[in-house]
Amino acid sequence: MISISLDWTWTWWLVLVIVFDLSVRVMAVIIVPRDRRPTAAMAWLLAIYFIPPLGILLFLLIGNPRLPRKRRKEQEAINDYLRESSESLTFGTLRPDAPLWLRQLVDLNRNLGALPIAGDNGARIISEYQESLDTMAAEIDRAEQYVHVEFYILQSDAATDGFFAALERAVARGVTVRVLLDHWANRWKPRYRATVARLEKAGVKWHLMLPVQPFKGRYQRPDLRNHRKLVVIDGHVAFLGSQNVTDRSYNLKRNIKRGLQWVDLMVRVDGPVVASVDAVFLSDWYGETGEVLRSGDEIVEVAGSGDLDCQIVPSGPGFEYENNLQLFMSLIFAAKRRIVMVSPYFVPDEGLLLALQTACHRGVAVELFVSEVGDQALVYHAQRSYYEELLAMGVTIWMYKRPYILHSKSMSIDDEVAVVGSSNMDMRSFGLNLEVTMLVRGGEFVDQLRGVEDQYRRMSRVLTDEEWQRRPLRSMVLDNLARLTSALQ
Hints:
By secondary structure, the chain is an alpha/beta fold. The chain folds into 3 domains: 2-62; 69-103 and 121-307, 2-Layer Sandwich (Endonuclease, Chain A), CATH 3.30.870.10; 323-488, 2-Layer Sandwich (Endonuclease, Chain A). Helix content is 46%, strand content 21%. The chain has 19 helices and 20 strands. The chain has a 16-stranded mixed sheet that branches. A two-stranded parallel sheet has the order 8-15. Strand 16 (410-413) and strand 17 (417-421) form a beta hairpin. Helix 4 runs antiparallel to helix 11 and helix 5 packs antiparallel against helix 12.
């Protein structure tokens, strides 16, 4: 009798488990694909189907690729403010005879990112790692009113001591210094406590970006990042690009053990476009603090040292669309002769891959610079899974030689247009990271970038199809497995 009762109980438990399992799978099919790319939806469904407890937990934690509703509403308000406050300004004189596709691209960027194109700007590329840190410090030493600093990773160490010392001197002479740094990217890095202690001691006004602090009422999807890198001095000079404020090894033991050294570039800009760079900082400051630092009538034009046309394009989960992806794809479709891309993490979606294939088929020479070695295994292997397709299209893949990590992010097309900034060409930068990119029209700037690309060629080797076909089976398996997760990275 007892045995029959136990069998009956286990039967009911088994029925409940089966019903629950089927319910979860049916609900997943209904909920997961909504407003997602098919690749991302399929990756989530595979995770939930094959490892239900972990898959469900991860989906609840990081399944929503958007910022909290409050932050999205704030971003909408910021975009409206930027459009209205800059509506009546001319922002310098634009170069004549812009092609129709470029004018349409500028309108696209304005509609998506709210910021206008500006003429009469000067821009200088700095491709030496320590030189960029020293140049930023020198400009901070000239500040008279304010310094705005925003970096994904910010560490006080031997390489960055001059940068931090310049911030300290600025505060000491009465300059307001505001600093933003990403919470998750810095919290677990070496020197975090020493860095924030130094900022506190100096009197710098600093805040964490996208903090994951549930016990303080501050929480969003924990793998969202503010990946922007920029500095603004008095509204006259700005810097933006790919470089973080840290030693070239990032002070990580595993990097030091492998001898890894980062290669980056920053761009020093002056002229009307600086107001747009500052607007990105001010919007992030408002998002983290609720403090409005400037009204629309305080946006003024500043004369630049050149006549480049520049437009700042912010992107991230606070925007409705993937601004940076649309910018990259538009440029690829517009190219007539040549495309050169530099991206340390190249994990394209279907649209970007098709755009590159179309460019190759119509006779455009396409080059891609990546690193020979990687610092993030999952992304590194996912990236490698695309090499066979790219080589088959006719893309020339340049492998920057170890032990360097080529971390620059840029694209140049033909002879007059280029983009530089913080955005990689991968799913994370398109959908999960807050990024900032600058579109530049001007042959002299493209010539500078071509010079940097030539430097990269001298430090790189071409990946051949023969070499790629000889890769070990274990590498192929790892690459293909990582590709399955690429939509979630």
